[in-house]
Amino acid sequence: MNLHQLIEKTRTCRRFDSTHAISADTLASLVDLARLSASGANRQPLKYILVTEPSQREALYPCLAWAGYLTNWEGPDPDERPSAYIIILGDKEISESFGIDHGIAAQSIMLGATEAGLGGCIIASVKKERLRLVFDIPKQYEVLLVLALGKPVEKVAIETIQNNDVKYWRDDKGVHHVPKRTLDEIILGR
Ligand SMILES: Cc1cc2nc3c(=O)[nH]c(=O)nc-3n(C[C@H](O)[C@H](O)[C@H](O)COP(=O)(O)O)c2cc1C
Question: Which of 49, 71, 80, 165 has the CB geometry, 3.0–4.6 Å to 15, for a possible disulfide?
Fold first, then answer.
């Protein structure tokens, strides 16, 4: 897989084979990709919590909001839930703000997940105070993102955007369609 293919394959996935276990070591190897990624002023203020235990996954799941555009879908059924999560935190003792560090870290992790045969979803819509309580996260850390990971059971197709409609949709065969703007639209003056 070349880089273009890897990025193309790194689609958001929200339904997984929940019987497929992901070890904490696998998650650590993905965080290592984030560790090696760019960071504003090289401050490296991000910290991570690895979540693999079933009881922790169950406690984390209700803190997340899934697929806002799929209004008739509450999120994955219990047998299609993520096998693991990575919680990305900002350490306020290192930096007051975290810029785009967590976005870069998240993409590095998602690319590594694809390479490892996994898939996932970057989740910013998080009940942060509830999650703080569940994981007993000290105030020193700001909750930034949750990455949900698992073995994908969802098919995803990239579509060319029509009528400026950015909403993804799921067809009657369960295929998830994600519209992308064209290169001509996003490069000005081309
Ligand atoms: C910063 C960010 C926050 C996101 N938050 C959520 C979220 O809270 N819930 C969710 O289901 N998907 C979330 N997503 C996934 C986006 O919906 C997804 O990236 C988008 O639909 C495009 O699909 P693609 O990733 O396959 O290109 C988020 C993605 C990003 C980059």
Answer: 80
Q: Where are the domains of the chain?
A: 3-154, 155-190
Q: What's the Rg (C-alpha) of the chain?
A: 17
Say yes or no: CB of residue 121 within 6 Å of ligand 1. Answer: yes
Ligand 1 pocket member 144 (CB < 6 A): no
Encode pLDDT of 42-89 as tens digits: 999 999 999 999 999 999 999 999 999 999 999 999 999 999 999 999
Alpha carbon nearest to ligand 1 atom 20, residue = 12
The pTM for the full model equals 0.98
Query: 3-154: which CATH topology?
Result: NADH Oxidase (3.40.109)
State which ligand 1 atom lies nearest to the alpha carbon of 156. 26
pLDDT band at 11 (very low <50, low <70, confident <90, very high): very high
Residue recorded with tokens 């306020």: 92
